[in-house]
Amino acid sequence: MFVCSCFSVTEQEVREHANAGACTPRQIAAASGAGTDCGSCVRTIQGLLGRAAGCPRREAARAGAAAVATVPAAAVPVAALR
Ligand code: FES
């Protein structure tokens, strides 16, 4: 079944790119072009990626790691806080 009709990209192709390491719609776009024309397929691609396993960042979040890195207060320049 086609996910992206603009570039004739199938659901299977998106899954293959995801299994090869593409974790985001942008990475799927870089690999296949899907989502780079009308954009109507991006939500479907996001949905497929949301169910796919293998994305290191997603796997870390599932394991309970912080989704966003924390920076110690001492490492932030005072000028950046003003
Ligand atoms: S359907 Fe994917 S860019 Fe148009």
TrEMBL record:
InterPro entries xref list: BFD-associated_ferredoxin (IPR052371), BFD-like_2Fe2S-bd_dom (IPR007419), BFD-like_2Fe2S-bd_dom_sf (IPR041854)
Tagged with keyword Nucleotide-binding: no
Residues in BFD-like [2Fe-2S]-binding domain copies: 3-50
Keyword Magnesium on entry: no
Keyword vocabulary terms for this entry: 2Fe-2S, Electron transport, Iron, Iron-sulfur, Metal-binding, Transport
Similarity field: Belongs to the Bfd family.
Record's protein name: Bacterioferritin-associated ferredoxin
Organism name: Streptomyces sodiiphilus
Lineage start: Bacteria, Bacillati, Actinomycetota, Actinomycetes, Kitasatosporales
